[in-house]
Amino acid sequence: MAKHGKxxxxxxEKIDRLKVYExxxxxxxxxxxKVTKFDASIDVAVKLGVDPRxxxxxxxxxxxxxxxxxxxxxxxxxxxGEKEKEALDAGAEFVGGDDLAKKIQGGWTDFDRVVATPxxxxxxxxxxKILGPRGLMPNPKIGTVTFDVKEAxxxxxxxxxxxxxxxxxxxxxxxxxxxxxxxxxAENFKELMGTLVKMKPATAKGTYVKGISLSTTMGPGxxxxx
Length: 226
What we know:
With about 230 residues, the protein is of the alpha/beta class. It folds into two domains: about 15-70 and about 160-225, Ribulose 1,5 Bisphosphate Carboxylase/Oxygenase; about 75-155, CATH 3.40.50.790. About 30% of the residues lie in helices and about 20% in strands. It has eight helices and nine strands. The strands form three sheets. Strands 7-1-8-9 form a four-stranded antiparallel beta sheet, with helices on one face. The longest helix is centred in the last third of the chain and has 17 residues, at about 180-200. The radius of gyration is 19 Å and the shape is globular. The two termini are about 30 Å apart.
């Protein structure tokens, strides 16, 4: 059994593990029980009644949090011509083509998000084994393969969060930072949940949202009602 520090144990003592808390109370407890010195993320885990092995139930998407994510991302864009300038003007940290691909193949991964125009996917496809395991591979389902690179970069910096159901049917996503107000975190949470509910597959049977918990980075989980 894993051993936890004093801060974790103190935070856990304030939480009834059998209780399903109202959202505002749960967020307050999470903020109060922050166990890290840095501004921890507020992370949400949503158990869905889906079978990820079925293509139409392998839920994947993104949501722009109305109050932002509290994070600053280094965005890399694969583009050329006018789209290269458009990406730079939008605030992308790195923009290019074969030059960036070679740099990544050489072991460089000093970036947080990747966007590509459709005509650059031939180049990007060769980087699948590097970008894929890191969750950085551009994908049209989450809006990172597009000719509208300006909007893609803007959304990422505005608080866009990507999510994908894992093998256990759980979605993991951050809804902000512990320094955010309960009201702002609640608004972000509701936006995430609203997006997930809209994505319910027609073939999913029974209860769709089976359970929700939230926690700060390295903090104890708190069950939440919805």
